[in-house]
Amino acid sequence: MSDEEHHFEAKGDAGASKTFPQQAGTIRKNGYIVIKGRPCKVVEVSTSKTGKHGHAKCHFVAIDIFTAKKLEDIVPSSHNCDIPHVNRTDYQLIDISEDGFISLLTENGNTKDDLRLPTDDGLLTQVPFILSNFSKTDC
Question: InterPro entries from the xrefs (predicted)?
Fold first, then answer.
């Protein structure tokens, strides 16, 4: 044995994987797929027949779930694609305070009060509800 000390750094995280593999030929419309590193919802799938030069190919048209941009990809149907783990939670808006915090109602009847609206005007335009039309009578 040698007297050398060996130091190892942890390179990975202990969390669960953000994606899982799935064969391209089994992905359907309204499913999810990762295209160019972005999680997307599939809006259209078309499959070409096997030709003399190889596999059948799947053409995916999908919408990025965060930016709503349209992305496309063509993958051989027998190859694996990354599928994101997607959990969607809907909240009902209760109130927007003067200091920019929003109050949301969860499905189990509790309130969530720890979210603040973005202060950047560019980001405010991306908020899924229209702030200018919100009033306390709408709640």
Answer: IF5A-like, IF5A-like_N, IF5A_C, NA-bd_OB-fold, Rib_uL2_dom2, Trans_elong_IF5A_hypusine_site, Translation_prot_SH3-like_sf
Domain that holds residue 118: 92-138
Residue 15 has a pLDDT of 53
Structural domain includes residue 3: no
Q: Output phi, psi for 9, to 5 deg.
A: -105, 140
pTM for the model stands at 0.65
Helix (H, G, I), strand (E, B) or coil at 21: strand
Task: Please count the other Cβ atoms lying within 10 Å of the Cβ belonging to residue 83.
Answer: 17
In 3D space, the residue among 10, 17, 22 whose CA is nearest the CA of residue 85 turns out to be 17
Residue 40 shares a structural domain with residue 76: yes
Instruction: Count helices and strands (H / E) in the chain.
Output: 1, 9
Among 49, 69, 44, 70, which Cα is nearest to 59's? Answer: 44
